[in-house]
Amino acid sequence: DAFLAILEKDAKERAKRRKRNEHIANALKEKGNDAFRKGHYVIAVQRYTEGLEKLKDKQELYTNRAQAYLKMHEYEKAIGDCEWALKCNEKCIKAYFLMGKAHLALKHYNESRQCYEKILQIDLQKESLFKDCMNEVNLEEKKKKDEERAMKEVQCGKLAALSIKELLQKLDRPDQNILYYTGGIKLLTGAVKDCTEQTLFRTNNGFSILKVNEVVRRGFCAERKNTAEVDLSVTLLFLWQAVCAGNEENQRLLLTHPDVNAQLPKLLSCGISEIQKETLALISLYSENENGRRLLVRHQDLTKWLQILMTFVNSTDARASSAMNILSDLTKEERFKTQCRVRLSTDVLPLFTQLLTSAKLVNQAALAHCIGVMGDLCADVVIRMQMAECKECWQACLKLVDECFDVSTPKYQDCLFAVLGLMMNLLLESNVIIQDFAVEISGSCMSLLRDKDGRIVTRAIGVLSRILPASSSAVEEVVKGGVVKKMIKFLKAGGEITSNYGIKTLSICTRNNRQAQEDLVKSDKGFRVLLQLLDSENEMIVGNAAFCLGQCLVVPGAATSLLNSNVVMILLKHAGGDATRTSVQENAAIALGKLCIAEPRY
């Protein structure tokens, strides 16, 4: 008993001592974190080390110290700390991440990849992080191989390789005439033929030309450029296109240059077509691939870019399509959408509505593309909500739709098709503005049902299917306009998308409108169309068809007209569990019940 008492006392003392040490270690960790945030990495290491002297198995102290070592370029020490952290916690993702970074800095590419693969094995949710890390390793390895290859060509005395170095040296001469530098940059651009020359441009500090050459920098950054400065700027843009095409390391270096970073939006807005054209061409090198887009999002303030690029819809030349292609590419990045929220209401929507109302006067091919971009941005709930609450935006959309009857060119039809798609996206929202416009929107869509372009008709029906739930008055108006007969006509023609929108429209109209119910019974003799839709493989169509049928069975004689059909078996099949959607089962069951009530012979 005495021995057990001694053991128990010892255990309590050790627990008490550990608790005290843990408190001290946590305090030291916070001091280290504070030093790290201030960039005092040596002090941070000291504090983490003192913490580890108190508590040797505290994982966070090892990983935090490893992070500080990384900042100090002490890569081997960082790896050692990560290994200790993993002894404390074998599933420590931060340890593998930092170890991967340290191995990458030491050019241990395979070891770095192995660390990142461990992260994905531990947590599949880290796939995005894993891809970014692996991409960084691949780029660094490619960069090293490119530089080794370029160095060999220089050592072998290859003329093309040597010319890059010589031309850069000539451009280093200070205080020359601006025309001298413009000519030299043109020669340099012509010398860049492949990856080797691109690499030599980088390794010989080609990107420092703006930093070290005041004449070039002053000409490129001038607010109001004279003819010589315009030529210089265009020539520089040509050079950067040549050295950055397909070379992600060069793209990164160029975009992180302070002057280039600041000047890009200014060049886009400068009003000088030659500069704008080549600036757009340069940006396209980034936007057309995922890594380039991420560089743009990471290093550029893109809050103004949507507005800046949208202005090119007024251009009649290739600048318009280039700008719209860039915008279309950027919408693939969630961070771009987030940045677009900032100026959407104040700057972007006023410009967008002005373009819509001037659809006859602007570049209609670019406008159609621009409307499509805005539709894609509506995938962001905040953007969609802001646009759906903009009265002027709805007015502009309706003006474009109404003017289509005066303009029947293919390009205007593309604008109409795009704006109907945008309206469908906006109608995923519900607000007072939409309710106020419901009658007008539904009326415009009814007029479009006569259009010869099937794409336009399908989207007009789609808009109807989404606007009608917002207003009973709109339902009354379209029913008076013969919407039921028109929908039955389109449903007979088939087409899954059209059928989906068409039967949805009918289900809304027949929900509470007796006239619509009677019109459907009259237009669809024996419910042939609805019965056919009940056999569809698309459950949305089946569910809405069953709902329409159930609503129309209150019309006298409607149930009797189905006596010679297999409607009971169809409804039983859907109600009994074949359908995966509960709503489909419910609609089928309700229709079956109403059928039996309306016609006792069932």
From TrEMBL:
GO biological process: axonemal dynein complex assembly; sperm axoneme assembly
SUPFAM superfamilies according to UniProt: ARM repeat (SSF48371), TPR-like (SSF48452)
Repeat is among the record's keywords: yes
Pfam families: TPR_2 (PF07719)
A GO CC term assigned to this protein in UniProt: centrosome
Organism: Grus americana (Whooping crane)
Domain of life from the UniProt record: Eukaryota
Protein known as: TTC12 protein
Keywords: Repeat, TPR repeat
Keyword Repeat belongs to the record: yes
Per-repeat ranges for TPR: 93-126
